[in-house]
Design a protein that fits this description.
rod-shaped; mainly alpha; 2 domains; 74 residues
């Protein structure tokens, strides 16, 4: 029966773990909320260029020329 001595400590540890995860989730949510969309949702020049090619707005030759111009600019 002596192994049941650690049961209350496991419950406290589990409670603290859950509270820590809750706080981390709230902090992460607030940071993303104030920052707006994450960087994966921003319209970078490369993403805009890819979308224009996919929609047929530009040809593959124009795409390659514009992509090279973007790489030179960096």
């Amino acid at each position: 029966m002596h192994h049941w001595v650690f049961f209350p400590f496991c419950g406290i540890f589990f409670f603290l773990l859950l509270m820590g995860l809750l706080v981390a989730n709230i902090v992460s949510w607030r940071r993303n909320r104030w920052r707006g969309y994450s960087s994966s949702h921003t319209n970078t020049p490369e993403l805009i260029l890819d979308k224009r090619l996919a929609s047929g707005e530009i040809t593959i030759d124009e795409y390659r020329a514009l992509k090279a111009a973007l790489l030179e600019r960096k």
